[in-house]
Amino acid sequence: DQPVQLGSLRAGPDLANIGVRAPDARWQLSHLYAPKSITPNSTMPSFKFLFEVRKADVPSPDALNLTGDFAPPAGYEVVPKPEAKQLAAYLLSLKANVPLYEAPFTPVTAAK
Predict the structure, then answer these.
(1) Cα-Cα end-to-end distance for the chain
(2) How much is the pTM?
């Protein structure tokens, strides 16, 4: 990948092919809202500001299906804002799944 990132600590997974590993938009949205609802020991921060918790007279088809401690209060639902949908679409587009063929190695020789 270019440019090479400085530093020696990598925190988190490689997202270069997350669109191949987790190709479901609903999974991506649930993971953005509450990462620990998907991966219990996740260190990823939640992006709750990308979602709206609103009173639900009629359930929205876009509402997240959250359970347990992550579910909204009764009568409310969690709906992704346009920014959350755009971020999920971007994550789904990351599909670095092409094979990397070995390049022939040409040693550098000193000039005479």
Answers:
(1) 35
(2) 0.76
> What's the average model confidence in pLDDT over 38-51?
91
pLDDT of residue 106: 60
Torsional sign, CA 6, 98, 44, 85? positive
Sign of CA pseudo-dihedral 65, 28, 43, 76: negative
Tokens linked to 63:
């509402």
**Would you mind telling me the total number of residues written for the chain in this entry?**
112
Which residue's entry shows tokens 């709206």? 52
User: How many angstroms separate the Cα of 74 from the Cα of each of 41, 54, 55, 59, 77?
Assistant: 26, 11, 9, 12, 8
84-88 CB contacts, 8 Å cutoff, 24+ apart: 84/29, 84/32, 84/33, 84/47, 84/50, 84/51, 85/25, 85/29, 87/28, 87/32, 87/47, 87/50, 88/25, 88/28, 88/29, 88/32
